[in-house]
Amino acid sequence: EAGVVQSPRYKIIEKKQPVAFWCNPISGHNTLYWYRQNLGQGPELLIRYENEEAVDDSQLPKDRFSAERLKGVDSTLKIQPAELGDSAVYLCASSRRPVEETQYFGPGTRLLVL
Amino acid sequence: GDSVTQMEGPVTLSEEAFLTINCTYTATGYPSLFWYVQYPGEGLQLLLKATKADDKGSNKGFEATYRKETTSFHLEKGSVQVSDSAVYFCALSINTDKLIFGTGTRLQVFP
User: Fold this and answer.
1) Which of A73, B5, B14, B29 has a C-alpha 20 to 30 A away from that of B67?
2) Is B4 in CB contact (< 8 Å) with chain A?
3) Which residues of chain B, if any, have pLDDT below 70?
4) Percent helix, strand, coil in chain B (nearest 5)?
C-alpha cells in the first residue's frame, strides 16, 4: 500500500511570495490533516478534512492560509503571502475514521522563507 | 487545555543500554496515547499506541503502558540499537479529532 505522498519536499521562497503544497492521502482514507511543525517542536494541526469538508480549521491563519480538498482525495495548502515566520515543515496525514484512528504521515514539505 | 509533556533531549546512550523517555499528559477527556518516531529524513511513523488505562502498546522492542493514575505513557526499550537513533514524539488524541504532540525527544545511540 502506497503511503501519503507530498510535494514538493523542499521549497525556498522570498517573503511575500505565494507557495503551495500538495498532498495525496492513502487510498480509501476519508480524513486528511495538515500539520505545521516548527523547528524543535511537535506538529500542530492546521486543518482537518472529512472527505471534502473542512471540519476543523480553527488553527488555520485564514488571512494568508487557504486549503482545499476537491473531490475528497488530494489536497492543496496555500500560503499567500508568505512571511518569515512561516518557515517550517508542513505535514500531511490521513486516516480511515471512524474505523481506525491511527494517522499516517507523509514525509513533509520543508519551507524556508527568506 | 489538553497537552503533552515529554523529557527534553538529546538522550545519549551506548548500544544495548536501557531506554526510558518520559511522557505525561493533561487531558479533559479520556485520550488515546501514541508514540511516533521520526527517523532522519523521513516522515512520522506510528511506533505504538494504547487506547485505555493499563493497556500496553508494544512494537520493535519498544513498550509503553497507559497509566491513568499518573497520567503517564513512558516509552521503554530494554536494549537500544544504533538504528533506533531518531526523534520520538509522544501524542494524545481525544475523539480521534486531532493529535496533540509533545515537543519530541532526540535519541542518539552510539556503538
Assistant:
1) B14
2) yes
3) 96
4) 5, 55, 45
Mean pLDDT of the A33-56 span = 93
B104 touches chain A (CB under 8 A): yes
Task: Give the whole-number percent of chain A exceeding pLDDT 90.
Answer: 83
| Shortest alpha-carbon distance between residue B101 and chain A (Å) | 5
Q: Confidence band (pLDDT; 50, 70, 90) for A51?
A: very high
What percent of the residues of chain A are helix, what percent strand, and what percent coil, each to the nearest 5? 5, 50, 45
Answer whether B99's CB lies under 8 Å from B92's CB: yes
The x, y and z cell numbers of residue A103, run together, are 494517522
- Say if the Cβ atoms of B101 and A42 lie within 8 Å: yes
Residue in the structure block whose three cell numbers are 545519549: B12
Containing B107, the helix (H) or strand (E) segment is: strand B105-110
Q: In this structure, how many other beta carbons lie within 10 angstroms of the beta carbon of residue B70?
A: 8
Q: Report whether B81 contacts A42 (CB < 8 A).
A: no
The neighbour count for residue B55, using CB atoms within 10 Å, is 14
pLDDT for position A2: 81
User: A45: pLDDT confidence band, cut at 50, 70 and 90?
Assistant: very high
Using a CB–CB cutoff of 8 Å, tell me whether A63 touches chain B.
no
